[in-house]
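User: Second chain of the day. Same drill as before.
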Amino acid sequence: MRWLKTVANYLNEIAGVPNYKRYLIHFQKHHPGGTPLSEKKFYQKAIDEKYGNSSIRRCC
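Assistant: Same format as last time:
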């Protein structure tokens, strides 16, 4: 069933679903010594970036 998780992760990435674990790996690689966002702040930032200042931005 590992392939199913791989497919799910791939589809989530395509859909733009935020992934805190992937963020931490990226942050450690590209910003050594920095302090990453907490998981709560990470998801709040993702929501803010997606929906903006209470105005929904989407293609449809």
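Residues 2-51 form one domain.

User: Great, on to the next one.
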